[in-house]
Design goal:
Helix content is 25%, strand content 23%. With 270 residues, it is of the alpha+beta class. The strands form five sheets. Strands 1, 2, 4 and 5 form a four-stranded antiparallel beta sheet that branches. A three-stranded antiparallel beta sheet has the order 3-12-11, with no helix packed on it. Strands 6-10-13 form a three-stranded antiparallel beta sheet, covered by helices on one side. The radius of gyration is 17 Å and the shape is globular. It starts with 7 loop residues before the first helix and ends in a 19-residue tail after the last strand. The mean pLDDT is 97.
Length: 270
């Protein structure tokens, strides 16, 4: 396993890209309303990233398998969709939940983040799943420091999610990121403390738990991208890109519009 370690210049490049990715979500927030289509949201993001930020939407034409390029600039995963939902012309309706996943490339560096959006008034169950998934992500983030292990992150997320009756998707995980969209290490959202790769300063990776209200089982749709819960239960996801610092962690994908921190989180750096 080869994990890239970012020097000061690389860390700064990641800070810039990460902030830009979060600012796309800030820009998009007032547009996520009943009646808008995810294709319209995709077009807004493409124009903002390319024309305002002078950056590149990383998902567009991304093709790790070599035979099925992703056709859009963002991922929009609605209700029971777990991840990689493809924008389309179906309007969002009141009560929907949608995860919007943004990755931008700026000067060769990738910033990757996602947020949950509640469309109009949603059910108590949907609000609870979104809130607790956000907290689950942060339970993982606060474990990050040099000398900690990747399993510490996964265990913290799994223990918290399952304590509330939810399940953790196993097939998709966080990942190293830098000048490559997906690189080592894989960051599982479940596991045992004291196992896995040892964290060291200069690592950058995403923490992005996918939490289901029902069972953890998933399936892929025929488009080759969209992942859904097998039992059609609601799913939620939040994502930040993290830098391991000499004394702890720095969250790189924050901006003015980022949601408030959970009560148990005292810092986003350093």
């Amino acid at each position: 396993m080869t994990i890239s370690i970012k020097d000061a210049q690389g860390a700064q490049g990641m800070r810039i890209a990460g902030k830009l990715a979060s600012e796309v979500l800030d820009f998009l927030t007032p547009h996520v309303v009943p009646g808008v289509t995810t294709n319209q949201l995709d077009k807004l993001c493409y124009d903002y990233i390319t024309e305002v930020q002078k950056a590149i939407p990383a998902p567009l034409n991304y093709d790790p398998s070599g035979n099925n390029p992703y056709p859009k600039s963002i991922c929009t995963s609605i209700n029971h969709q777990v991840c990689h939902g493809i924008p389309n012309d179906k309007p969002l309706k009141k009560g929907d939940t949608v995860n919007i996943d943004i990755t931008v490339i700026k000067d060769g560096w990738h910033g990757d983040t996602s947020r949950m959006f509640l469309v109009g008034e949603t059910s108590i169950a949907a609000k609870r799943l979104s809130k607790l998934t956000y907290e689950a992500m942060w339970h993982g983030i606060v474990k990050v420091k040099p000398g900690a292990r990747l399993g510490d992150i996964g265990f913290a997320i799994q223990r918290f999610a399952e304590s509330h009756g939810f399940s953790v998707v196993r097939e998709f995980c966080g990942h190293g990121i830098g000048q490559v969209f997906h690189e080592e290490p894989q960051v599982l959202h479940y596991g045992k403390p004291g196992t896995g790769e040892t964290l060291q300063a200069g690592m950058t990776f995403t923490i992005e738990p996918m939490i289901n209200a029902g069972k953890k089982d998933i399936k892929e749709l025929g488009d080759g991208w969209t992942i859904v819960t097998r039992d059609h239960s609601l799913s939620a996801q939040w994502e930040h890109t993290i830098l391991v610092t000499p004394t702890g962690y720095e969250v790189l994908t924050l901006s003015e519009g980022s949601p408030a921190l959970p009560d148990f989180v005292t810092t986003t750096c350093c």
